[in-house]
TrEMBL record:
PROSITE patterns: PROKAR_LIPOPROTEIN
A biological-process GO annotation: metal ion transport
SUPFAM superfamilies, alphabetized: Helical backbone' metal receptor
Gene Ontology CC terms: cell envelope
Basic and acidic residues: compositionally biased ranges: 144-156
Protein name: Zinc/manganese transport system substrate-binding protein
Keyword annotations from UniProtKB, A to Z: Metal-binding, Signal, Transport
InterPro entries linked: AdhesinB (IPR006129), Bact_metal-bind_prot9 (IPR050492), Lipoprotein_PsaA-like (IPR006128), ZnuA-like (IPR006127)
């Protein structure tokens, strides 16, 4: 996270903390948090994917407050007073983990949260680093800032097998927080795990129809590493050369990416729903390939609108597979 962004975050968290103190014991607005009413377990989930997992495993026995809304970039998220209030009154906070929510620990501390944090990534075999190596002064800056740290890819949910591990961790957390509902959570987990198995087999069947020589992928940023590994795709490059969306493409990287797209016979560049497609469109024009954007944009960091088919994890992943397979088959 850049220094300037840290200053913005500090200012935001200070304002949020002041707002919480001012609110005192006021009743939250409807829909903001249901932690103080009813017997249901109050859970805060950080990302759209994690929130969807909690809803499926928790069923009617949980009330979920989702922090990051659809098509909001999770990498540079800034907490709001409503976020702190929801966390302060929840019994459980569930996160993606793997460093995706850099803002969360400080937010939890500021909120005075005394419950349990469930890291849904526990037990997942992590992919190290990104496909790209950053260059020049920016790379040296980042290296100094993260000295001693080992970067891992946080986009673990794009492999349904990892999603199974995540929902199992969530089920354990829910059962520990509300033992009386443990049987219901276990039953929900079994049903949802079957859905994840079907998603995985459907994805594999779709990719079996595409020759391996045509399975070349260029995306907005390096968010699909686990998906690529699971279904044996070839990663050609990304418009943003990083796991994080804040990185910038240098002139040399842009030229190299265009050349690589041409040399490999890659058919398309896939934009993402939470990122602007402008640079992807410019690169596609230079490389002489199509850009897949708009309603067909991939869900890399987010899910679709709540009432849409892509508003669930299963729907978004099915969308991604169908869009990529259709484009590469054509």
């Amino acid at each position: 996270m850049k220094y300037a962004h840290r200053l913005v975050w500090t200012a935001a968290i200070a304002a949020a903390t002041t707002a919480i103190a001012a609110c005192g014991s006021e009743t939250p607005e409807p829909g903001a948090s249901s932690a103080t009413s009813g017997p249901k377990l109050a859970v805060v989930a950080t990302t759209p994917e994690v929130a969807d997992f909690v809803r499926n495993v928790g069923g009617s026995d949980v009330v979920v407050t989702q922090i990051i809304k659809p098509n909001v970039d999770p990498h540079d998220y800034e907490p709001t007073p409503a976020d702190l209030q929801a966390i302060a009154t929840a019994k459980l906070v569930v996160k993606n983990g793997v460093g995706l929510e850099e803002w969360l620990d400080r937010t939890i501390e500021s909120a005075g949260f005394t419950g349990t944090v469930v890291d849904s990534s526990q037990g997942v075999t992590l992919r190290e680093g990104g496909h790209h190596e950053e260059e020049g002064e920016h790379a040296e800056e980042e290296a100094g800032e993260h000295a001693g740290e080992e970067e891992h890819d946080p986009h673990i949910w794009h492999d349904p097998r990892n999603a199974k591990i995540m929902v199992t961790n969530i089920q354990k957390g829910l059962a520990a927080a509300d033992p009386a509902k443990a049987d219901a959570f276990a039953k929900n987990l079994t049903a949802y795990t079957a859905d994840l198995d079907k998603l995985d087999s459907d994805n594999a069947a779709a990719w079996a129809k595409i020759p391996k020589t045509d399975r070349k992928l260029v995306t907005n940023h390096d968010a699909f590493g686990y998906y690529i590994a699971r279904y044996e795709l070839e990663f050609v490059g990304s418009v943003i050369p990083s796991l994080d969306t804040s990185a910038e493409l240098s002139a040399k990287q842009l030229t190299d990416l265009v050349a690589t797209i041409k040399a490999t016979g890659t058919k398309a560049i896939f934009a993402e729903s939470s990122l602007p497609p402008k640079t992807a469109e410019a690169i596609a024009q230079q490389a002489g390939v199509k850009v897949v954007a708009g309603e067909d944009a991939l869900f890399g960091d987010s899910l679709g609108a709540p009432d849409s088919p892509e508003g669930t994890y299963l729907g978004a992943e099915r969308h991604n597979t169908q869009v990529i397979v259709d484009a590469l088959a054509g």
